Amino acid sequence: MRTHLKARPVEILLVEDNPGDVRLILEAMKEGKMHNNVSVAVDGVEAMAFLHREDGHAEAPRPDIIFLDLNLPRKDGRTVLAEIKQDPQLRRIPVVILTTSKADEDVLRSYDLHANAYITKPGDLEQFIKVVQSVEDFWVQIVKLPME
Amino acid sequence: MDLSSINTGSIDIDHIERRDRQLWWIAVLVILVLTVTLIVTHAPGLVGATKGLSTQVKTYSVGLFLLVVLFCFYVLQSSSTFRKLRGQLLETEQDLIFTTHSKSYVDNILRSMGDSLIVVNPDGTIRTANDRTFQLLGYTPSELIGQPARRIFAEQEEEFFKGLGFSSLDPKGFIRSVEKQFLTKDGTRIPVSLSGSVMSNDDGNIQGIVCVIRDISERKRTRDLLERYAKELARSNAELEQFAWVASHDLQEPLRMVASYTQLLAKRYKGKLDSDADEFIAYAVGGATRMRRLINDLLEYSRVGTRGKDFEPTDCETVLEGTLADLQTLIEDSGAVVTRDPLPTLMADATQLGQLFQNLIANATKFRSSETLKVHVGAERKNGAWLFSVRDNGIGIEPEYWQRIFVVFQRVHGGEDFPGTGIGLAICKKIVERHSGRIWVESQPGDGATFYFTIPISGDESPCVLT
Q1: Do B260 and A125 touch (CB under 8 A)?
Q2: B402: which of A126, B262, B385, B451 is 20 to 30 A away, CA to CA?
Q3: Chain B environment of A100 (Cβ under 8 Å)
């Protein structure tokens, strides 16, 4: 039986428009032991182009996990979520919503659109790091991801 | 017939009495004379002079005597008849006086009363109306009496009585304080309040409806003004709530950036830059952290209004148990012993009530003394409200601070000794006021503190919209 060895780096797609948050997440990931390759899309349109390997993203790797902010320019995160989960080629990829919103409607809507998890960005740095680490640990170490 | 014109002097009862008495005397006198005559004419040997009188004269005199006796009987009877008549006349006179006085008394009432009084016939026409009615409406009596009553109301309903609220003319029917509009002669509308009762006579026949109508222009003006102010106040409050929420919400992101990166700086460069840098960064981090907490608390404070739910029957025991479960770690760590009285069920927002208990009990654990902390939650019914109390044996609060502690962000013990932003009690106050209650504290330094709050039982059981 083929064991789940992570010989190659974990491919992460981070869809986030706030450069401060992007850097924070990257720094948080650096704290971990995972070998990651993080790609960043700053809006919903770029995110979809990356996933479909279009518009200059022909060589884009297929992400093992997607961190998705909800409030994005050009194409909203909720739309991106819907499109990913409706696309047979993309819907198996776990999508973790990472947003500032605590609103119940957003939580419900995200799960309705089949988000795999919903996380509100913590205000405290240590918390933030812990959360990002936990997500990585859980989704990459513990959870069995579909082989593609 | 105008009763006030009857002159009781035209039936002179005294005159009749005098005649009556005169007749009596005449009768007595005549009987006396005749008796003497009889004795004289018939008594043998009494008076010699009468011996020669013939038998004819004697018979005539007897006959005459009998006639006179009969006449006397007649007089006597007339007298008693007169007496009865006199009695009846006296009664009638009394009745008339009484009726006249009553009638003019009642007329006076109708004339003087400040409200309009109208009697409406069963056919809907106006039968009677008082002075005030004519005054209010600007009509003369002749213009109003006999006219259909609906003419004087702005709402020209076909079925006058149905319009008033009488589904049928039931002898016991009445309506209270129906608001309508008078329509005056010159077309002005006057808001009025109308009460009416069905009038029926002794035989049970319906004679009409008597209505008392009050001009409520002033009252309505005041009421409309009050409504406007209340709406304005509610709108202003809603705006403030929204502003507080939006401000707090939008401040979160930049604040997160400041807080996170100062913390990252501290983490990454502590000891790698000079000690001044470490100190500066520490202050920056401290400031950012406090600011974040303040904004979160402010958000929570504004949410008391914006996220408040409608009141439902709430079992306070259940709420308190939930709160104690949430605070379990805190209670265990502080070694507190929590006791309580039986708690009632009342109309409230359960979530907010839980918040209230939580803040008060958490405060008790925070401001405890060196003794084992004892917290007692009490409830008693007083003056139409439930009076709750949360008593502790902690460090207490000086009287000069009893008011201040309920103000947003006001703290007695600042700095690091007792953590917190000072919003807990302000939130408690807002919650209590939303439930139309009052909250206060009684305490002595070193002797613990008792927080009291009331929740009214009866009356308007919806959340106070002005908080």
Answers
A1: yes
A2: B385
A3: 252-253, 256
Q: CA-to-CA distance for B151 and B183, rounded, in angstroms? A: 7
Angle (CA) B364 B368 B373, round 5°: 80
User: Is any Cβ of chain B less than 8 angstroms from the Cβ of A106?
Assistant: no
CA of B293: which chain A residue's CA is closest?
A123
* Res A107 pLDDT > 90: yes
Banded pLDDT at B13 (limits 50, 70, 90): low
Burial B375-412 (b: 16+ CB within 10 A, else e): bbbbbeeeeebbbbbbbbbbbbbeeebeeebbebeebe
Local confidence band at B50 (pLDDT 50, 70, 90 cut-offs): low
> Is B317 buried (19+), middle (13-18) or exposed (0-12) by CB count in 10 A?
middle
Neighbours of B334 (CB within 10 A): 17
Q: To the nearest whole angstrom, how far is the Cα of A7 from the nearest Cα of chain B?
A: 30
Strands of A36-41's sheet in order across: A36-41, A10-15, A65-68, A95-99, A117-120
Which tokens sit at B252?
A: 């979160």
Task: Quote the pLDDT of residue A18.
Answer: 92
How high is the pLDDT of residue B25? 83
From A76's Cα to the closest Cα of chain B, the distance in A is 18
- Predicted local distance difference test score (pLDDT) of residue B4: 41
The answer, for A125 touching chain B at a CB cutoff of 8 Å, is: yes
**Cβ of residue A27 closer than 8 Å to a chain B Cβ:** yes
And the tokens for B430?
A: 């807002």
What is the average per-residue pLDDT within B165-182?
76
Q: Which residue of B has its CA nearest to A27?
A: B264
Which tens digits make up the pLDDT trace of B377-393? 999 998 889 999 999 99
Q: Which strand (E) or helix (H) includes residue B89?
A: helix B55-112
Show residues of chain B in contact with A18, CB under 8 Å.
253
What is the percent of chain B with per-residue pLDDT over 70, rounded to a whole number?
A: 87
Interface of B with A (CB under 8 A): 252-253, 255-257, 259-261, 263-264, 267, 289, 292
For an interface test with B, give the residue of A69, A101, A125 to mutate (most B CBs within 10 A): A125
A146–B contact, CB cutoff 8 A: no
Position A2 scores a pLDDT of: 44
Q: What is the four-CA torsion angle of A13, A18, A24, A30, rounded to 10 degrees?
A: 20
* Helix H or strand E encompassing A58: none
Q: Which of residues 51-80 of A touch B (CB under 8 A)?
A: none
Give the pLDDT of residue B203.
Answer: 82
Distance of alpha carbon A11 from alpha carbon A62, whole angstroms: 7
**Full-prediction pTM beyond 0.80?**
no
pLDDT in the model for residue B361: 93
B257 min Cα distance to partner chain A (Å)? 7
User: Has residue B92 got a pLDDT over 90?
Assistant: no
Q: What sections of chain A are H helices per DSSP?
A: 19-30, 44-52, 77-86, 104-112, 125-136
